[in-house]
Amino acid sequence: MREILFGYKLDPTTWAYISALMMIGIYFKFRRFWSVRNLDLVGLICFSPGLLLIYHGLPMQHASDPLAAARGAESVQAGYVWLFAVSGFFLIRLLLDPVMVRRPQLEPNLSASGLTFTGAALLVFLMANVITSPKERLEYELAKQEAPSAPSPGYEWFYKFAGFANEAMVSAAPDAAQPETHRQALILAATTRAAAILAYLVIVAGMVWLGYRHFDNIHTGVAAATLYLLTFYTSQLTSQIDHVVPAALLVWMLAAYRLPLFSGVLLGLAAGLIYYPLFLLPLWCSFYWRRGLVRFVCGVLLALALLAASLALHWQDFGAFLTQVARMVGWRNPLGIEASGFWKYYDPSYRIPVLALFVAICAGMAIWPAQKNLGTLLSCSATVMLATQFWHAHQGGLCMAWYLPLLILTIFRPNLEDRVAISAVRPGWWRRKKA
Fold this sequence. Notes:
Helix content: 55-70%
Strand content: under 5%
Number of helices: 21
Largest sheet: none
Low-confidence stretches: none
Oligomer: single chain
Order of helices and strands: HHHHHHHHHHHHHHHHHHHHH
Number of strands: 0
Shape: globular
């Protein structure tokens, strides 16, 4: 009975077709064929071939046959190039989003109750995917690859915790000679999977809350969350803690934008864990410039200080502590790291102009658009996190959860020109006391 009811397997290629057909059937606007929504939908579907090329090419790279290994390397390289091409399209799309003033509300083709049921069912199956950890996923093939020689910038313990999920996926069968070691491995695996499940629940809740509270339409929030669960990426990199946990923090950072201190704490935590959200600071400081800037900056510094203090509890040696803090905030040469993924196949010196352009985009977010609202804050945050993939040294292009929920919310967002800091954020207590 267990094999009949629960022993199902779904090939990644099959799910790529099924998810694409469901996305088209639920969200494609057949009566407005030449709409931006349809173009965005096609773009989201176009991520699937790149992920499939990497999935099918990774096992072949280590084959004993040199010809098969060469074909595998070509497939992986083509997959990363494909992902970069689609990401480049969405980067331009997000940069143009602030000038798209006309944003008609395009309801999904499915009713609100049907869409809610579909989203809940997808969430249940996704959680089951995390618990069972099947080998028919891209993340299983990635976990078998060699770890990078230099650790990624960010919080050391967080990356160690995220590594437990990869170790659990490729762990061997139980060893009767070392039952205690096997028991500890099971506990770590259960902990990482529970963290991944909780993070997905937080992301979905945050997207629904944004639709209900800030888009004034809970149906839009449910539609955005369901589309996120439908994307091929979520089925293939489900248990990646270093992807999904920062995504949950970034989604709720936007959901709580009316509370600068709380948003600052969430941004500080995300930046301390994976470093890259630090580049959101010019954009968010510009948004809170007229009201809430001090509270926001204090929140960011408080979160970073708490993470640094936790490192001090473990590293008693002051030199080692400073090394870990420098790693947490990314204080190192980003070009002196052995690259994997896209940049493994190309001259690393080409990353220099890419990195320079990225820094220019982040700095430019402080002055453009001049009048920032929740809509521009959402789209520009997605732009920054998407742009990090172009120079990210370790598997750049695959950390899609860092920007995918924000990108989907941008696709669904209405016109939010009235949601500016001066009207949406309450004055600080010192100003209220003076008044």
